[in-house]
Design goal:
It contains eleven helices and five strands, in the order βαβαβαβαβααααααα. The protein has 217 residues and is an alpha/beta fold. The chain folds into two domains: 131 residues, Response regulator (Rossmann fold, 3-Layer(aba) Sandwich), CATH 3.40.50; 64 residues, Orthogonal Bundle (Arc Repressor Mutant, subunit A), CATH 1.10.10. Strand 3, helix 3 and strand 4 form a beta-alpha-beta unit. The chain starts with a strand and ends in an 11-residue tail after the last helix.
Length: 217
């Protein structure tokens, strides 16, 4: 079994690689510490039976990685493994094409069982995240149509845009490149169907995605 493992924390990646050896009799693991490197590996034409990635990554985050894999028409099951317990983030990953969302807090045996489910064509989401995402139907629709279209990093960019920060300032605050800020901003604009920041902020306000809306004095 060939596995692509993407995590920017080397200690975590190394520990997971050891655990993943119990997934099958023969396991060949390729570790990448950035999503950019992982996409480069995929671009080399290498095939994997399973792809695992953290969600909060420097540069292109896990959701951006999922988008990149989708553009490359990768058919391997992709699982997000993260320490977050945010149900919206989990749902966004599943909506973006992930076959599963697994919390790093799970015992190794449960994590392996979840991965085996995914390898057998099933989707996996922890029960506590399923319970956390249970809302009145109207709110559920809003979450699916609005925030689910944006990744956690894009939601962060959106908040910083609403606060009046320039691309350069956002890049400094988030410790990412201006090119990545522009990538996230373009995705937000496309998701909202807008072409400038003013319209973007107004649309975000109407969708309830900005907790402290910017108002004109």
């Amino acid at each position: 079994m060939k596995i692509l493992l993407v995590d920017d924390h080397r200690l975590v990646a190394d520990a997971m690689a050891i655990m993943l050896q119990d997934l099958a009799e023969e396991v060949d693991i390729t570790i990448c510490y950035t999503t950019q490197h992982a996409l480069g590996v995929v671009d080399e034409g290498r095939d994997f039976d399973l792809i695992l990635s953290d969600i909060y990554m420097p540069g292109i985050d896990g959701l951006g990685f999922l988008h990149g894999l989708k553009q490359r028409q990768v058919t391997s099951p992709i699982v997000i493994i993260s320490s977050t317990e945010n149900a919206k983030v989990a749902q966004a990953a599943l909506d973006q094409g992930a076959s599963g969302f697994i919390q790093k807090s799970l015992p190794g045996s449960e994590m392996l069982a979840a991965l085996k489910k995914v390898l057998h064509g099933q989707k996996y989401q922890p029960r506590n995240l399923e319970a956390a995402s249970t809302k009145p139907q109207a709110m559920k629709r809003a979450s699916s149509s609005d925030s689910a279209a944006l990744g956690p990093r894009q939601l962060e960019v959106l908040q910083l845009i609403a606060a009046g920060n320039s691309n350069k300032q956002i890049a400094q605050l988030m410790e990412i490149s201006e090119a990545t800020v522009k990538y996230h901003t373009s995705h937000i604009f496309r998701s909202f169907g807008v072409h400038n920041r003013t319209s973007c902020i107004r649309e975000a306000q109407s969708r309830g995605l900005i907790e402290n809306p910017v108002t004109d004095n």
